[in-house]
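From the shared-data thread, chain only:
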Amino acid sequence: MESGCWLVTLPAIDGRQYVYRVYAPADALLADLFWEAWHCHDEGPFPRALDLFDAAVIQHVG
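Structure, as C-alpha cells:
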C-alpha cells in the first residue's frame, strides 16, 4: 500500500477553517482521516472545531 498525504480542512466555531496534513495510505477511509485531523485540532490551542464530518473538506495531494 502506497502512503500519501491528505489535507483535511475543518471549520471552527470562530468562523475560520483550519487545515491539517494527514499521512495515510491512498485507500484510507475518509472518516479515519477526519478523526485524525479533528483530534489533532482538539489538542491544540485553537477554538473548537466542528465535529461534523460533512463540514470537512478532505483532499488527497499525493
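The radius of gyration is 11 Å.
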